[in-house]
Amino acid sequence: MSGEKSGRQPGAGSAQQDGPEAGPGDGAPVQRGDQAFRRRGLLGRWPEMTYGGALSFLRRNYSRDAAGADVVVSGVPFDNAVTFRPGCRLGPQAIRAASVQLAELKAFPFGFDPFETLSVIDWGDVHLDPHRPETVLPAIEAHAAEILAAGARMLTFGGDHSISYPLLRAHAAVHGPVALLQVDAHCDTWPDDGARMDHGTMFARAAAEGIIDVERSVQLGLRSFNDRDHGFEILTAPWIHRNGIAAALEVVRARVGAAPLYLSFDVDGLDPAFAPGTGTPVAGGLASWQALELVRGLAGLKLIGMDVVEVSPPWDHAEITALAAATVAHDWLCLLAEERGARRVGVGRL
């Protein structure tokens, strides 16, 4: 559906955007299409063809100017640190493409347009030189430091999970040691030598360096074994299946408290039935509905940043992994919109 039917109108402020086009029969100015590079303001939206147009995340402006932006979306197309199937360097493109339908209606189940109150830009992708691997992690950290210095929060798309380490370093430089909520099939705390580039060891390094406050941190959805817990609270996938989402959120809220919370969402935390497009799939994981309920349940916590990683389009089917990734990211943005004054409107039994 094109998003031009009744009720799918631009958000507040869109009438002051780029030059008018012919309206739907009454001559009124209506903006249509390619708002990612045509819209001048940061709030509001207008109709797009879901199957056409510029594919920024949720059709937000492509921009390298973070002034006035509440959130900066960016991609890190890097997968040299994978240990099994490659391909997640293509993840940022896939997540953007999968976001088109999320940008045409008010957000479910929130009942509001998050972009009436939350200003979001899409920075594009970090430029990396994969042929000089020693430059990759410093480049990601410098990119994050630049955005955080502008006062914006970050929503970052990987790429493999190793990108979380330089992102956490940049956030800790601003906030001090952060609470980490890690949704994942794997602990990613296997033995680390302080130098290796490995998507299975970076949280052990982050904990050792003190940029993660492990006493405030939770690993959620795990279903692989490590002899050490490194001080994290671990809620395995079987525990969540038995005890439910409400119980998991109770643990998370008690553990995190008022600490600055960074959410790192590895799509392999989902069961392969819901996220086949990833490099290290593990059976027995979360359903997409469980993951969405978990993210939506973080309202009111001190949310400082999020990454969504390990989406590998070559292994995906019908974009279902990319769609799950785009939706959890979209719902995290809705929580930030609520912080900015958006109010939920319920229709039906929610």
Break the fold down into its secondary structure elements and pairings:
Blueprint: H1 35-38, E1 61-62, E2 71-76, H2 91-98, E3 120-125, H3 136-149, E4 153-158, H4 164-175, E5 179-183, H5 202-209, E6 218-222, E7 233-236, H6 237-243, H7 245-256, E8 261-266, H8 288-296, E9 303-309, H9 320-339
Parallel strand pairs: 1-3, 2-3, 2-4, 4-9, 5-6, 5-8, 6-7, 8-9
Helix pairs in contact: 2-9, 3-4, 4-5, 8-9
Summarize the structure.
The protein is of the alpha/beta class. It is built from 9 helices and 9 strands.
Verbal overview:
With 350 residues, this protein is an alpha/beta fold. It has one domain: 3-Layer(aba) Sandwich (Arginase, Chain A), CATH 3.40.800. Helices cover 27% and strands 13% of the residues. The chain contains nine helices and nine strands. The chain has helices at residues 35-38, 91-98, 136-149, 164-175, 202-209, 237-243, 245-256, 288-296, 320-339; strands at residues 61-62, 71-76, 120-125, 153-158, 179-183, 218-222, 233-236, 261-266, 303-309. It has a nine-stranded parallel beta sheet with strand order 1-3-2-4-9-8-5-6-7, with helices on both faces. Strand 5 (179-183), helix 5 (202-209) and strand 6 form a beta-alpha-beta unit. Helix 2 packs across helix 9 (320-339), helix 3 (136-149) runs parallel beside helix 4 and helix 8 (288-296) packs parallel to helix 9. The longest helix has 20 residues, at 320-339. The radius of gyration is 20 Å and the shape is globular. It starts with 34 loop residues before the first helix and ends in an 11-residue tail after the last helix.
